[in-house]
Design brief:
Length: 84
C-alpha cells in the first residue's frame, strides 16, 4: 500500500511511504534536510513498521516538540491503521 502524510511542525512538507505486509518498502520526504532524510529512508527499507515507530517516536529537533523522524512514526502509525 502507498500512503501520503502531511507532517506538521517540521521543515518537510510531505512523506510518501510504501508498506507491504507491515514492512517498509520505501520512504520519501519532500523538503527537510535532504541528506539526513535520505539516510533515514534508506536505513528503514525492509524494517518492520512497528519497530520503526518505536525507534522514531518522540524524537525532537532542537527546540521543536517533534521532528521529521517523529512525524514519520505518526505517518507509519496512520498507514498501519488504514491498512487494517
Amino acid at each position: 500500500m502507498t500512503y501520503t502524510y502531511e507532517p506538521t511542525g517540521v521543515c518537510s512538507t510531505k512523506i510518501d511511504l510504501e508498506l507491504e505486509d507491515g514492512i517498509i518498502r520505501s520512504v520519501a520526504f519532500t523538503g527537510g534536510c535532504n541528506g539526513n532524510l535520505k539516510g533515514i529512508s534508506s536505513l528503514l527499507e525492509g524494517m518492520d513498521a512497528q519497530v520503526a515507530i518505536e525507534k522514531l517516536r518522540g524524537i525532537q529537533c532542537g527546540w521543536k516538540p517533534t521532528s521529521c523522524p517523529d512525524q514519520l512514526s505518526k505517518a507509519l502509525t496512520a498507514a498501519l491503521a488504514e491498512s487494517k
